[in-house]
Amino acid sequence: MKSATGRWVSGEDFFGREAELEVLGEHVRAGNHILLTGQRRMGKTSIARELGRRLGEEGWIFLFVNTEMASSGEDVTAQLAEEVHPIQPVASRLMASMRQVLDNVDEVSAAQFRLKVRAGLTAGNWRRYGEGLLRDCGRQERRVLIVLDELPIFLARLLRDDDGDGRRVDEFLSWLRATFQTMGDQTAVLMVSGSIGLAPLVGRLGMSDRINYLHPFRVGPWSADASVACLERLAESHGLALDEDVAATVHGKLGLGIPQHVQSFFAHLRDDAKMQAVDRLTLDAVERVYRSSLLGPWGQGDLKHYESRLHDNMDELEYRIAMDMLTEAATQGTLTSGARRCLEMLYEALDESVEARTGQVLEVLEHDGYLEATEHGHRFASKLLGDWWRARFEHGYVRVEDRLRQQEKVRR
């Protein structure tokens, strides 16, 4: 088993998700369209790709479209065209239908095919050609699974480009739903996934009905036993011995069995062992690596994306509120209802609907796995992320109740 950080895995490196794969496979084979959800770094892309690989062994056609860099419906349609290029009946029909807008497309690679198709697509015709592609996929003798990965990021980009009015988000989601719902029995199976939540995004826009044909399937964290088993298998594969309780202590430090974080911790432990010229992982090494590596500069690449994704997919006020909520929870242990109300009072001069906005932000933070609700308020779901957030942002932070008191003194 190879150590894998920051990439999807399949085959022999795929680990700990057999139960999820079995249930998800049953839904797909039954023809159910899927909304694959779960917080970041849970391995949703790996699950989708491994399911596609296994279905391919059963005779299915698997099409994986990463929409993260797309900025229009034309881009997504062209990316789908690249994926179907090897399927000659589908590619040939697309070429025939676009003959008037395409120049010579014979004997071109899949990437060249995408570029040529994209050149022929416009805001006025992409829906027609995209629908034709999807319908032709559904007409194949072999069944087809289409995964649209990182779709929420694509939709968030549309929303920003449209200054938040949601027109093109509505257009794309309505087109996608209508296309699949009108295909009848001759339909490919659609799976939508992403590292930010689709449901909170469409809920905020009042468009929840646009995705009600998708069956939600949530991927949760590994259990402690699965995390320990993964660490033991990784250590064995890399010729490293484990002292007693090392694997369990690693899981305890993480606080949550996020597969990427388990893999990352092991990668840091392996590097430390090489630097120390030892072939055994000890409890002392776990403590040292956690403090100096995972919470230090070496850990920035693994965890900083949690902050950047918030900035990329929220407006400025929502981002400020989210950062305050998370830093309050990290430094104080819990984001209490009282602290939340103080935040609303701090920001009410900037937006009269701030109470609703803080509710929307908190919904996103819960859905995407930053915070979890407890009896006394909200706290970090991942101990690693909470410790990292505190180490990164506690310097100079003033808790919200004290900031509100300072603001009230200035006003008086």
Number of helices: 19
Strand content: 5-15%
**Largest sheet report:** 5 strands, parallel
- The total of beta strands comes to 9
Note poorly predicted spans: none
**Rg computed from alpha carbons, rounded to a whole number of angstroms:** 24 Å
Shape estimate:
globular
What do the pLDDT scores average to?
89
Give me the secondary-structure category.
alpha/beta
Main sheet strand line-up: 2-3-4-1-5
- Helix and strand run: HEHEHHHHEHHEHEHEHHEHHHHHEEHH
Helix share, percent: 55-70%
What does this structure look like?
The chain is of the alpha/beta class and 412 residues long. The chain has helices at 18-29, 44-57, 73-84, 88-97, 110-120, 126-138, 151-161, 167-181, 198-204, 224-237, 246-254, 259-276, 283-294, 300-313, 316-332, 337-347, 354-367, 383-393, 400-411, and strands at residues 34-37, 61-66, 144-149, 189-193, 215-218, 241-242, 280-281, 371-374, 377-380. Strands 2-3-4-1-5 form a 5-stranded parallel sheet, sandwiched between helices. A two-stranded parallel ribbon has the order 6-7. Strands 8-9 form a two-stranded antiparallel ribbon. Strand 8 (371-374) and strand 9 (377-380) form a beta hairpin. The longest helix has 18 residues, at 259-276. The termini are far apart.
Outline the secondary-structure elements:
Blueprint lengths: L17 H12 L4 E4 L6 H14 L3 E6 L6 H12 L3 H10 L12 H11 L5 H13 L5 E6 L1 H11 L5 H15 L7 E5 L4 H7 L10 E4 L5 H14 L3 E2 L3 H9 L4 H18 L3 E2 L1 H12 L5 H14 L2 H17 L4 H11 L6 H14 L3 E4 L2 E4 L2 H11 L6 H12 L1
Parallel strand pairs: 1-4, 1-5, 2-3, 3-4, 6-7
Antiparallel strand pairs: 8-9
Helix pairs in contact: 1-2, 3-5, 3-6, 4-6, 6-8, 7-8, 10-11, 10-12, 12-13, 14-15, 15-16, 15-17, 15-18, 16-19
